[in-house]
Amino acid sequence: MKRITDILCVFRIHLARLRREAGPFVLAALIFPTAMYLFAVAVSGAEEISDEKRLRFLAGSIVFSLSMTSISWLGYLLLENRFTGRLKLFATLPLAPSSYIFGVIIFALAQAALGTTTLLIVARALGVRANVSIASLSLVVLLTMLCLCGLSVSIAARARSFSEGSLLTDSLGAGLVFLAPVYYSAQAMPAALSSVSKWLPTSFAASGVQTALTGNFQAGTELLALALMALVTLSLGFRLMRWREE
Amino acid sequence: MTTSANKSIRAQSQTSAPDVAEENVVRVRGLVKRYRDGTAANRGIDLNVRRGEVVSILGPNGAGKTTFLRQLTTELKPTSGSVEIFGVNAVAEPESAKRMMGITPQEGGVFETLTVLEHFELFARFKGLRRREARLAAFDVADELGLGAEINKRVGHLSGGQRRRILIGLALLGRPPLLILDEPTTGLDPASRQTVWKVIRHVVAEGSTVIFSTHYMEEAERLSDRIGIIESGRLAAFDTLDKLFARLERSYRVEFSDPFDPLVEKSVRYFATFAEAQEHTASEQLSEYSIARASLEDIYFALTGERFVKAEEGEGA
Questions:
Q1: Is B1 helix (H, G, I), strand (E, B) or coil?
Q2: B19 pLDDT more than 70
Q3: How many whole angstroms separate alpha carbon B236 and alpha carbon B310?
Q4: CB neighbours of residue B303 within 10 Å
Q5: Judging by DSSP bridges, how do beta strands B209-213 and B54-58 pair with one another?
Q6: Could you report how far apart the first and last alpha carbons of chain A are, in Å?
Q7: Which ipTM score applies to this complex?
């Protein structure tokens, strides 16, 4: 019970920030992914664009939004906590590091839910016809977030300075989206890059989201891959996040 | 002033460690901290702190005060040695040890989007207080620290001194039986400092034990039962103020200025007796001088070779 209370308190502390800065959060979650969607539509020829392509671009934008939420912004938040002395406050408490991690991950999930829902509404307004399987999409979003949050926690726990950590999270947040076949098919990529990028979590996430947007619940491979990756990255994050310095 | 909520942690510690009720609540043995770059910040510190004591830790910058406190609070793992808090091995069981402690780190940060009340309420919940208890404890602590009028303000709108008081308040929540405060009053104005002193005296009267580091001699003199002076990673002295004074062979201090050049910095000489001091002023025909008993600053100087004013210029290490 104490553990659940701890997790919820960590979540509430961070939620206060979202509550008070909701405008910028929603805008940020919306502007980049929407702009990328419009850009992708524009460069692929907006006149004859097929519904399938539109769904791919929307899936790409959702993954982009998740990547920004989980790596860039959560990473920034964790780094800020660590390098402004806030993490020390948690460290002074009878609180397990894992409770802190779960608390911030729940916060990131709340942001992801908000961002994804907003993007779906905008996409509808832009004429994208999606037959969303809510359960499937929720599962893909959850596993993608867990996987990427694990990376974020690991970087924030190990970065030697705020600027080093920010550079790493920003590069990883954008890199994982643009190096994966998110806005375009794997066939369109150079062969060498394609063989690597197909193993990136964002590749599985984009494929899973696209399947969910077509109303299917048949993204077994993607879900399994994301679950395994989440297990690895979260284990790493839990291992690296320590209150006590050596 | 204190609610049952604030008493809960103390009650917990007393039931879990009845065997140490009258004994040392903190036992440190052979504490060594050597950093990876080879710097030896603590070189074998032994220390006992009794229940209900107020212990201050003094020392020049870089002497190892904060390193020592960070090991007590389990934030830093010792290279060797042991730390026991209420009989709990703090090195092996940091979370259990932290249940007995309220800690104010030297460089803790607050959450600017939270109000003072939210800070106190949420952190009280981390300390195991129920929702209603946490709220009562939050109001109690805010009142004690003179933050009652600011309780619903966001911390981002408060001054540095008020934020510092919030950090002290977080340590007080749940009235832990041991408080460890790293330079709690640094950056506070005199009135706020007085408020913090009052709070420390109050929690000690209620049975808590307090260990704090400070850069202010007056603070150490006024609050402490015993004073520890750390020099080059070693505990150079640890005793009551009277016993520390007794260490000085020459405990009378004559401070005088050159009658022909009053702008030159004042000179200081020490004497074993008041009579010797008077004799000196007469033989030197001093016209402007003062004779006083040695102060803690003189003891500090004798042990560390540094004037305390110098140490106040920067942050402790």
A1: coil
A2: no
A3: 19
A4: 18
A5: parallel
A6: 30
A7: 0.84
> Residue length, chain A?
246
Task: Find the Cα–Cα–Cα–Cα dihedral A228, A231, A233, A236, rounded to 10°.
Answer: -140
Residue type, B41: A
What's the CA gap between B34 and B132, in Å, rounded?
Answer: 44
A15 touches chain B (CB under 8 A): no
Kindly state the tokens that stand for B167: 């950090």
Give A-chain residues touching B113 at CB under 8 angstroms. Answer: 16-17, 19-21
- In single-letter form, the type of residue at position A181 comes to P
**Rounded Cα distance, A196 and A205, in Å:** 15
User: Does B221 reach chain A within 8 Å, measured CB to CB?
Assistant: no
Residue B268 or A218, more confident:
B268
Q: How confident is the model at residue A77 (pLDDT cuts 50, 70, 90)?
A: very high
Region label for B36, one of left (φ > 0), alpha (ψ between -120 and 50) or beta (otherwise): alpha
At B79, the pLDDT band (50, 70, 90 cuts) reads very high
Among B109, B118, B154, select the one facing A84 at the smallest CB separation.
B109
Instruction: Give me the mean pLDDT over the A77-102 stretch.
Output: 93
Q: DSSP secondary structure string, B36-68?
A: TTS-EEEEEEEEEEETT-EEEEE--TTSSHHHH
Residue B51 backbone zone (phi > 0: left; psi -120 to 50: alpha; other: beta): beta
- Reported pTM: 0.83
- Search chain B and give the residue with CA nearest A100: B126
Minimum-distance CB partner of B127 among A21, A89, A93: A93
No. of H helices and E strands in chain B?
Answer: 12, 13
User: Are the CB atoms for A130 and A61 separated by under 8 Å?
Assistant: no
Picking from A141, A128, A131, the residue whose alpha carbon sits closest to that of residue A53 is A128
Q: Is the pLDDT higher at A110 or at B264?
A: A110
Check if B256 contacts A (Cβ < 8 Å). Answer: no
Tokens (6 digits) for B170: 């977080």
Residues of chain B neighbouring A12 (CB-CB closer than 8 A): 122
Task: Answer whether A88 touches B (CB < 8 Å).
Answer: yes
